[in-house]
Every structure is written in structure tokens, then in C-alpha cells.
Amino acid sequence: MNKDTVAFAIILSLIDFILSIVMISGIGLILTWLPLLNRLGKLDDETIRGGH
Amino acid sequence: MLDMMLKFFVALGAQTGLAGIWWGNVVMIAIGIGMILLAVIKKYEPLLLVGIGFSCIISNVPGSDLILPGGLFNYAYRGVELLILPPLIFFGVGAMTDFGPMMANPKLVVLGAAAHLGIFVSLIGAKLLGFSIWESGAIGIIGGADGPMAIFMAVKLAPKLLPQISVAAYSYMALMPLIQPPVMKLLTTKEERMIRMKQMRTVSRVERIAFPIVIGIIVNLLLPPVAPLITMLMLGNLFKEVLVTDRLAKTAANEVMNVVIVILTIAIGSTMQASRFLTPSTIEVVILGLIAFLFGTGSGVIGAQIMNMFLRDKINPLLGSAGIASVPIAARVAHNVALQDDPDNFLIYHAMGPNLAGVFGTALSGGIMLALLQ
């Protein structure tokens, strides 16, 4: 397949743009779930610093 | 006797750089001086432009050994060529960045990809102008407004265009306060610009520590081509957030960052030799870079407006323009444009979310591009 064409540039752009949005939405979804970790417990900033 | 002396001076002259000077060197030396003046007088990115400008001047003095193999500037360039410096820049950036705004409002993360339409517009434009697909990809990434990523992609896909791409990327990043506002105002109404954002939640320490580890795993799993950059970004951020490695975080954010900036600016400036830089392709790259920034800003704003069609709590569409990366310049521009219509509407913290997501958006676009092109 000859990649060095305008047609390939258009296809590449479309795939890249759509995949970027899908993947970054996935990161957003993971960030939405991140607060669930708070159920495991709480880390106090002063305690962490004091223990060092 | 006189004849001998004349021959002696001619031979001496041939040993100096005077014999090799041409008008291109003079132009590039003037450009280098212009960069230093911009940094000193206008305060445009002084940390970058002073080093690049000086290195550009020296590299255009014929006979300078610094740029030849074995010369110090050449070793600096090897750091770029071997892709050592861009990940180290990300390491320092990670250590000084608070990803809290991004974690606190995950729905804004998608703006980090929406604001990158400019990448693809300039990629197609570059191909239409006759650049190879690999060069077009590297030129397109200028629209990601992420200097280290632009350098990374240029080295991977089009090393010959490294000087043009790096200079265009960093110049436009410095000029974002001039480039973005007209597009932002053109695409939004005053009412939209006055939308106030709700206060964000507080992000816990557990989340802040988990974030770099989770993202590090995901990026290495899904996007190995750009993993070095994001991995180092996350390592720097982990040093910052665990609170028990303050010394390392401060070193990464200050000493390491400063040393890397010195070497990086020398390396970029040393590539700006007249014979490489004064070509028609430079003008084309500069124009395509500007197109990428304009379209990226516009697509980010439109992306936010599309999101507003589905959201109950509307978001200020100016936040979309911050998705173009260039942390924190784009966030500051969004904040300042909002202040012009409502002096009490402080968007900066909210704009940092899409702004940081823009770093990931550029990395994702670059990673996918590398995977498809290599």
C-alpha cells in the first residue's frame, strides 16, 4: 500500500482524530472512576510528610 | 617580500570563517539577534529564545567548530536526535504540574482531543503542498502546541525539518495570546463567554498518587511509540504527589529542567544553519503551523459548544481553546478572554483541565500517527 498519497493523508487524519477522541474519552472514563479508590482509605498529607 | 606577505595573509584568511560567509549567514545571524531582542524587550519565552537565538548566531558564523562532530553544540543536538532531551523535559513538567483540575472534571478531558483538528488540517495541507506523508505528519503535530512532542515527532518522522518545526512550534506557543483570542471571539457570543463554571471538587491524595501510575500503565500498554514522553511526565508527577520525594520533585522541576532547557535550546539553535533553514519549505512550515493553531483553537471551542448541546450544566466554550495544550499559556488565554466580558469570571483553574488533557491529546495523536506511519 502506497502511504505517500493525499488519500492516505485524509484517511490517516480521520482515523487518528476519531481514535484520539475515543482514547481520551477512555482516559476521562477512568478518571471518573478514580474517586472509587477513596473507599480504600484516606492518606493525610501531614502524616505522610511527618513519617519521612 | 611583499608578495610573500600577501600570500601569507591570503592563506591566513582562508583558514578563518571569513572565506565561507554568504548572505544567508548574515540573515540567520540577524534572526538570532531578533530572537534575543524579542526575549529581552517583549519578554516572549526568554528561557527558550535567548539560548536558541545565541546558538543560531554562533552556528551561522562560518568556521565554528561547535556544530561539527565532536563540537559541544553537536553533542547537544545528539541529545535531541537520540530522543533523550524531550522525555527529560516532560519529566520536569510532570514534577511541576498539578493534574488536579483534570481529575476533578473528567468530562472536560475530551476537549484535549477536540482541539487538535488543526493537526490534521495542516497534515493534509502539507501533503497537498508536496511534502511526504512522514514530513506532513511531523508538520501537523505543530498544531498540538507541545514543543517536546513536536521535536519528538520531527526526529522520528522528518529529521530534516527539525529546525523549522521546532522554531515554528515554540514561536507560535509564545504568540498564542495574539493568535487565539480573535478565533475565540469570532466563534462565541458574549453570553457564552460569560458562562460561569461550578466550583470543582477536591481531589484526594490517594487519587493524585494513583493517577500517574494508572496513566503510565495505560500509555505503555496502548501507545508504546510515545510512551517515553508520557511515562517521564508521570514519573515527575509521581515524585511531586507522593510527598515523600520532595527533594527529587524539586530537582526535576528546577535543576534538571534548567539544564535540559539550556541543552535543548542550544541544540535547536544549532540546527538553524542558513543552508538548512533558508529554504521555501521553511515558509510553508511556518504557514501550516499557523493554520494548525487557528483550526485547533476553533475546533476546541466548537467541541465545547457541541458538548453544551448534551450537558445540563453548560460549560464556558472558551475552555475548548485551552485543549490545544501549551500548558499553561492556552489556559491563561481562555481566562483572560473571559475576564474581558466579566471581570469576576475566573476560568484559569477550570481551563487547566482541558489544557492538561491537551498534552495527552497531542501524545495520543502522535502515537497513533507513528503507529500508522512506521
The description of the largest β-sheet of chain A is: none
Strand content of chain B: under 5%
User: What gyration radius of chain B follows from the Cα positions, in whole Å?
Assistant: 22 Å
- Looking at how many chains there are and whether they match, the oligomeric state comes to heterodimer
Tally of helical segments of chain B: 21
Write down how many β-strands of chain A occur, each being a DSSP E stretch of 2 or more residues: 0
Low-confidence stretches of chain A: none
Q: Briefly note the structural class of the backbone of chain A.
A: mainly alpha
> What's the overall average pLDDT of chain A, rounded?
90
How far the N terminus sits from the C terminus of chain B, by CA atoms, comes to 65 Å
Q: Work out the largest interface and the residue count of each chain.
A: A-B, 39 and 45 residues
Q: Describe the main β-sheet of chain B briefly.
A: none
The run of helices and strands of chain A is HH
Note the beta-strand portion of chain A.
under 5%
Structural class of chain B: mainly alpha
* Global shape of chain B: globular
Helix amount of chain B: over 70%
Quick rundown:
With 52 residues, chain A is mostly helical. Chain A contains two helices and no strands. Chain B is 73% helix and 0% strand.
Task: Please tell me about this protein's structure.
The complex is a heterodimer of chains A (52) and B (374). By secondary structure, chain A is mainly α. Chain A has two helices and no strands. Chain B is an all-alpha fold. Chain B has helices at residues 2-15, 23-42, 46-59, 72-81, 85-96, 100-104, 111-114, 117-128, 133-140, 147-157, 162-174, 176-187, 190-193, 205-222, 227-241, 246-270, 274-277, 280-308, 318-321, 329-341, 348-373. The N and C termini of chain B lie far apart (65 Å). The model of chain B has no long low-confidence stretch (mean pLDDT 93). Chain A binds chain B through residues 3-6, 8-10, 12-17, 19-21, 23-25, 27-32, 34-35, 37-38, 40-45, 48-49, 51-52, and chain B through 102-103, 106-107, 109-110, 112-114, 116-117, 119-120, 123-124, 127-128, 132-133, 136-137, 140, 204-207, 209-211, 214-215, 218, 222, 242-244, 357, 360-361, 364-365, 368-369, 372-373.
